[in-house]
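User: ok so my PI wants both of these folded by tonight, can you help

Assistant: No problem, let's get them done. Here's the first:
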Amino acid sequence: MSDNILQEVNEFTYSLEELNEDGKPKTFKLKGTFQKRDTPNGNGRSYPGPVLEAALNEVKTIVDEGRMLGELDHPADAKIHLDKVSHKITKLEMRPTGEVYGEATVLPTPAGKILEALIRSGVKLGISS
């Protein structure tokens, strides 16, 4: 991955799914808008579609291999610390509407349990991408 990282904060609109498939433990999946082209985000920045598409292409393999992880809070150094991981990004795609749609699975880690508790308590979360 390049050193030119898009690092932005957005209000995260999401839906929550509780899944229980074939005896597997219940998991939480977050789905929603991670970013939108030509639309100011929480930091007041906006990006044209080609910039977002290039960023998505750059991380596609990482997402497909299940290696894109996230922390409960925004890491100060823009690096993921495995002891603070709360979720795994399982899907990122640019939709024709210009929305970068994403899905994440909440992991059963200590930080993931906190994230689950916040969600169950109705806390409105944002996302930093």
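One down. Here's the second:
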Amino acid sequence: TAATSSPMPSEAIVVSAHNLTKAYRLFGHPGDRVKQFLSLGLRRYHRQFTALQDVSFEVRQGEMLGIIGRNGSGKSTLLQLVCGILKPSAGTVQVNGRVSALLELGAGFNPEFTGRENVYFQGALAGFSRAQMAMRFNAIAAFADIGEFVDQPVRTYSSGMFLRLAFAVAVHVDPAILVVDEALAVGYAGFRARCFRRIGELRGAGCTILFVSHDMEQIATLCDRVILLEDGRQLLSG
């Protein structure tokens, strides 16, 4: 996650990706890793899998960019690169501002910690002191609306309860950039409506949002622009 920068002028570019590429080495057997190392590159014991290739785009402050494509098209890989979870194999991605991400359920939360402990833990990762998170805690708990479960280990949560807490934290840490990866698909209708109202409030305050969804109605209603990925490549943008 990039550090918070100084205030940016209106419509400043906050996410900039150029020829972004992520490739993996896939080994058929665990011992092939050792063979590859010992071969000094003279033989090849792996095959290359390119999850993302030569993707370029810019997102301005306050924009909501939709990212669509079939499963396996590279959407989650792209978001993880933007968040700094993955390092690119080639190309660059520059992010200006604090990123708050809601990726796959469970990401970043310790299942043995209580909901309350995870709230403070996530706040610390975002650069907030315990006192600062204490000031936000009641608002987070009210938004999540999981009652006494906030003091139970998150491993006991349903997927819906986990989503409610994770989203509540993500939108209460003053993000300059909010990244949402299909997570809202598991929420019940009333909570999704609350989430989208909050997303609207964040956009009104100048927050930039990257949004992955298979729901084309959501994409058409919420997003300013969309990029379509297919087999790791950027097929269309507009």
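The first helix runs from residue 31 to 38. The beta strands are 13-27, 46-60, 64-68, 90-95, 99-102, 177-181, 208-212, 225-230, 233-237. Good luck tonight!
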